Structure of K Homology domain-containing protein:
Amino acid sequence: MESDKGTTSMEIEKVQSDANRVSSALKPNFEPLKAHEISDGQVQFRKVSVPPHRYTPLKKAWMEIYGPVYDQMKVDIRMNLKGRKVELKTRSDTPDISNLQKSADFVHAFMLGFDVIDAVALLRLDELYVESFEIKDVKTLRGEHLSRAIGRLSGKGGKTKFAIENSTKTRIVIADTKIHILGSFANIKIARDSLCSLILGSPAGKVYSKLRAVTSRLAERF
């Protein structure tokens, strides 16, 4: 019986190794696509709208935005004054087609209100995202209740917002009733939970203590 079991296990291992060998042989090995190889060599475009309140900041920070996009990502960028849009397109020497989308995400993050220094991380790191939601998505508030909720999110002198940003390694923009969070997927979730607790009426001290517990668990995990 033992010899039969040994023979069976050997046969199973042989079948598995043969299957792995066949699957690796059949697996296609594609080379990375270049920008000019996509869509029969057609140029790819992206357009990012400029809100009225971000027009002046864009003019001031234009060279800080233009440099990384044109020099590092090898993507052409220009401002369409008539359409009030930032236009981006691929070049013949664009190394990767994803650079175009990264550049568009970078410009869009700046339009949402993030600093150029923070938004530029979208060009350099792959696992970063921007998530947006409104206070009314969490709880329907009006008048003074809404004003107090926005005040709780920021804290005195922005203290609460900075505490959440530093502990979760994210960046938060509170634009009236809209909230934008820039960071990794897991960190965005922690920051969003903290902000939702504040909107629902939790005192800042309770949110701080919960944040400390969550961040210490994250530190242990890594």
